[in-house]
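Annex B.
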Amino acid sequence: CAKESSRTSYQYYCKENNCEAINEHTMLSNIKLALENKDFQMYYQPIINLKTGKIENIESLIRWFHPEKGYIPPDQFIPIAEKSGIIDQIGEYALEEVFSQKKKWNDSGFYLEKVSINISAVNFSRAEFSSYIKEKLQRHGLKGEEIVLELTETSFSTHKSKMKENIEEIRSFGVEIAMDDFGTGYSSLARLKELQIDYLKLDRLFIVALIEEDGQEVIKSLISLANALGKKVVAEGIETEEQFSILKKLGCAFGQGYFLARPMPAMDLISS
Ligand code: C2E
Ligand code: MG
Ligand code: MG
Ligand code: MG
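Phytochrome-like protein cph2: predicted structure tokens.
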């Protein structure tokens, strides 16, 4: 509360806000430069069918290796890109890159059912987003069924109506939709049923809790809920053999995580 805060803490806050503003400004010009210099790269992490052990899907994850600052994680620059609108260009980069990569894999005979792409709610709620996706599918010669678009659970609550419309249109092309980081937001069960989503991606925090007895109960009920609603479950962030075998035992359909495979450049994927 401003009234009660001492002069020093007030100054401290001022300084901090100012510092944040400067950082955001610098970050934004760095993002623009990185787009120009092609410093972004897509990495790919296999999503595995836990029953068969087969790779059925691959999640694309953006990577930024800054020439001086080194690796900058997406959680640090995506939110700033979203605020400024430059996320449109980042989204365009990621979609173009991943669609053409998928086409290359198809042409080279590397069998892979689907690729997943993380999409910011800012992009997804644009009026023209579904026709934009349709055009991309046609231009790259891909079927909608080859693509999964991931949206975080929290984005569903902030961009309601336009997202819903876009989801319906995009699903009509055969593209599937995943709700990412499920468990970090507040989706009511009614909402889950009403939303046209194909996958529920259980946030890593649920997986960490698996070693606790009630942690397993939670996952078990989430899996049966998802099954009842006709949605496929993906467990995120599987880091240990123990987590892996518990999830298998609980009947979780898909999983990804460092224990199975780390995100890697497209080149490494073919040779692994
Ligand atoms: P996400 O979509 O939930 O991606 C999963 C994150 O968990 C990734 O972090 C991945 O590298 C990491 N991860 C995978 N397996 C494990 C594991 O076993 N343990 C742990 N601790 N982590 C694991 P990353 O790449 O830093 O991405 C963070 C978030 O940034 C993503 O979360 C996604 O929301 C966003 N993001 C990433 N790439 C893109 C993109 O191309 N476009 C947009 N709009 N957002 C992106
Ligand atoms: Mg994701
Ligand atoms: Mg996630
Ligand atoms: Mg996440």
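The chain has a mean pLDDT of 89. Residues 180-181, 201, 236 surround magnesium ion (ligand 3) (CB under 6 Å). Further annotation is deferred to the next reporting cycle.
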